[in-house]
């Protein structure tokens, strides 16, 4: 659908989901032609190939390194703008960890801060026109969420032993209610990585798809001004969503970490 | 383009387009839930503004939980359109 040029002013000129297609950087492929069963693997993205996803993941890592290298280079008493950004983000996440997990959670602050920076930069770099929003892919966010899930589960058992299972056996509830609550708690525990990853990917993907839908309407002359206003408004909302989702991702990581360290309700 | 769409819909899978549309009703629930969280936060914050700042984290967590279920319906719609 995307490859056909539509001269008429009706319908979508391009498909709003086309922006999420993973393509190799140095090779043109026709999307959807990968079929290993028939031996036609020219359309497949090979595992070693640099793609637009890996490019933008790399760029977001480089942007984080640049921010903190430049920010901490001067170590001025009166911070420059870059230094303020670095210090404020550090202080904000430090405060989240301290408030939600407590002081003993500060041991895990580096990992939480890494997650926050990575998600935030991936979200914000994805908002640059013609770039690729890596966090719109569940494959990327699921890795982050599963790392948190397994890390937190292992940590819970290491720190509390079998007492970690108190998380599911709610001792403050009446005895008759506990088996029912245990089932609910177990389900909600295993849905965590799903909702954790899909919340981020879904928000980013939906926002970008909406942007592209408005962009497609810009091809119709008499709707174009309205569409451009719509793009600007949604773009502003998306900047907000990018930061809030990074914040929420971090916050939920802290909540899960708190559950692992203090499993009793 | 239009013939193509009509042919695609008529051929086999009109059911999944209807299903994807129905899945979007889930958004109504998420909208009400998020509105409820924000509204209750605001009414509480206006009664006791001094305690409001300490509860913004809870606000965002509540919104995130409410929103996640709406995003599940979005996911169902996407699965129906692109994976089913």
Task: Explain this structure.
- The complex is a heterodimer of chains A (265) and B (84).
- Chain A has six helices and no strands.
- Chain A is mainly α.
- Chain A has one domain.
- The longest helix of chain A has 40 residues.
- Chain A is globular, with a radius of gyration of 23 Å.
- With 84 residues, chain B is mainly alpha-helical.
- Chain B has one domain: Up-down Bundle (F1FO ATP Synthase), CATH 1.20.20.10.
- In chain B, helix 2 runs antiparallel to helix 4 and helix 3 runs antiparallel to helix 4.
- The radius of gyration of chain B is 19 Å and the shape is rod-shaped.
- The mean pLDDT of chain B is 83.
- The interface between A and B is medium-sized, with 21 and 15 residues.
Comma- or semicolon-separated keywords:
A: 265 residues; mainly alpha; 0% strand; disordered N terminus; B: 84 residues; F1FO ATP Synthase
How many domains would you count in the coordinates of chain A? Answer: 1
Order of helices and strands of chain B: HHHH
Mean pLDDT of chain B: 83
Measured by residues with Cβ under 8 Å of the partner chain's Cβ, the largest interface is: A-B, 21 and 15 residues
Helix and strand content put the structural class of chain B at mainly alpha
Number of helices of chain A: 6
CATH topology of chain B: F1FO ATP Synthase
Helix content of chain A: 55-70%
Q: Estimate what percentage of residues of chain A fall within beta strands.
A: under 5%
Rounded to an integer, what's the Rg of chain A over CA atoms? 23 Å
Main beta sheet strand tally, sense and closure of chain A: none
Q: How far apart, in Å, are the first and last alpha carbons of chain A?
A: 53 Å
Low confidence ranges of chain A: 1-10
Work out the count of structural domains of chain B.
1
Q: Write the CATH architecture name of chain B.
A: Up-down Bundle
Q: Regarding CATH, which class of chain B?
A: Mainly Alpha
Fraction of residues in β-strands of chain B: under 5%
The gross shape of chain B turns out to be rod-shaped
């Amino acid at each position: 659908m995307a490859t056909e040029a539509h001269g008429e002013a009706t319908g979508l000129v391009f498909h709003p989901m086309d922006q999420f297609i993973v393509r190799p950087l140095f090779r043109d492929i026709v999307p959807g032609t990968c079929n290993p069963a028939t031996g036609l693997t020219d359309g497949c993205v090979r595992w070693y190939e640099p793609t637009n996803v890996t490019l933008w993941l790399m760029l977001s890592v480089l942007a984080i390194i640049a921010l903190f290298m430049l920010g901490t280079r001067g170590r001025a008493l009166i911070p420059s703008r870059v230094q303020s950004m670095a210090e404020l983000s550090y202080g904000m996440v430090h405060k989240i960890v301290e408030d939600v997990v407590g002081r003993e959670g500060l041991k895990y602050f580096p990992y939480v801060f890494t997650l926050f920076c990575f998600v935030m930069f991936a979200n914000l770099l994805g908002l640059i026109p013609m770039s690729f929003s890596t966090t719109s892919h569940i494959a990327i966010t699921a890795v982050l969420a599963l790392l948190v899930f397994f890390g937190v589960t292992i940590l819970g058992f290491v720190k509390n032993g079998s007492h970690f299972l108190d998380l599911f056996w709610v001792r403050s509830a009446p005895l008759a209610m506990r088996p029912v609550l245990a089932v609910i708690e177990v389900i909600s525990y295993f849905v965590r990585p799903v909702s954790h990853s899909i919340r981020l990917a879904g928000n980013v993907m939906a926002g970008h798809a909406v942007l592209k839908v408005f962009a497609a309407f810009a091809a119709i002359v008499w709707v174009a001004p309205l569409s451009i206003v719509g793009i600007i408004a949604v773009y502003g909302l998306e900047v907000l969503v990018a930061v809030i989702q990074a914040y929420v991702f971090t916050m939920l990581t802290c909540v899960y970490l708190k559950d692992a360290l203090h499993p009793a309700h | 383009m239009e013939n193509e769409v009509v042919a695609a819909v008529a051929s086999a899978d009109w059911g999944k387009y209807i299903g994807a549309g129905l899945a979007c009703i889930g958004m109504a629930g998420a909208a009400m839930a998020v509105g409820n969280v924000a509204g209750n936060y605001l009414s509480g914050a206006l009664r006791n503004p001094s305690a409001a700042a300490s509860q913004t984290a809870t606000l965002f967590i509540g919104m995130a939980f409410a929103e996640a279920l709406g995003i599940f319906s979005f996911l169902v719609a996407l699965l129906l359109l692109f994976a089913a």
